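Figure 3 (text version): structure tokens given as input.
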């Protein structure tokens, strides 16, 4: 199965970047993300819905922006 989607966002780049860079916002636009919490030192904790009713969690670290 090959799926393709396109979204047009009519906002200034700086505004879109600011929204995208706040990881907590991503769960409002990505259906599979349940929660994203920024912790400290460029780290974040992510929770997502997985297939078959499962939940997955992971920690991420941003080392370059």
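Below: residues designed for each position.
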């Amino acid at each position: 199965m090959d799926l393709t989607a396109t979204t047009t966002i009519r906002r200034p780049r700086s505004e879109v970047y600011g929204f995208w860079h706040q990881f907590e916002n991503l769960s409002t636009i990505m259906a599979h993300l349940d929660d994203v919490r920024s912790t400290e030192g460029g780290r974040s904790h992510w929770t997502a819905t997985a297939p078959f009713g499962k939940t997955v969690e992971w920690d991420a670290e941003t080392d370059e922006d």
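The CA atoms of residues 10 and 16 lie 9 Å apart.
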